[in-house]
Request: fold
Amino acid sequence: MEEKMKILIVEDDETLAGEIIGFLEKWGYEAKAAKNFGDIAGEFIKYSPHLVLMDINLPFCDGFYWCKKIRQVSEVPIIYISSRDDDRDKIMAIAQGGDDYVEKPFHLELLKAKMDAILRRTYQYKVRDRGYLGEELYFDYGTGTCIFQNKRLELTKSEKKIMSKLLGARPCIVTRDELMMELWSTDEFVSDGTLTTMVSRMRGKLKEFCGRDIICTKKGQGYYIE
Reply:
């Protein structure tokens, strides 16, 4: 089984740290929040992450201090996540060895895009064209198949379109009209009733494959993946 990219989150806001962890795990990363803010360097060495997300305002010592400490032993990429928007803070962040700076509040999708770019550059690591749907379950964009515990489920052309659209918008709702427009691009006319049948069949197919519900319905609005 391939190694997941490990992310250490140095953020004393437990709610935000939890949101980041949940989001990154859905995309196949392994993520952990630092707990001992008196020894971030020790946590870094013990966990040995591929990338660090570093807040600036922390208990005991600030993020600049811990970035400098980490730089004494490692060149692992560090992205600052901070509500401090002064240009001097951004300059200090880079001067202390940071690789990028994201201001709070931020969209998690933007954070992931920056992480993916830095990981590619640092490790010559090709970010997998996968959308993780749960533990050991993911959609492979390249082949248009779902993989669960090394078993493979082939999807039809239309089902691939639906899955790609839902994963691209995740966790937001994709309206029925948006899905029909997406499917029309396959040169197949899809009526409202046809879409209902198609999604219902696809939902059953996925549940039989992995034993869980993947596609959720928002009555009167559309579909989404949590």
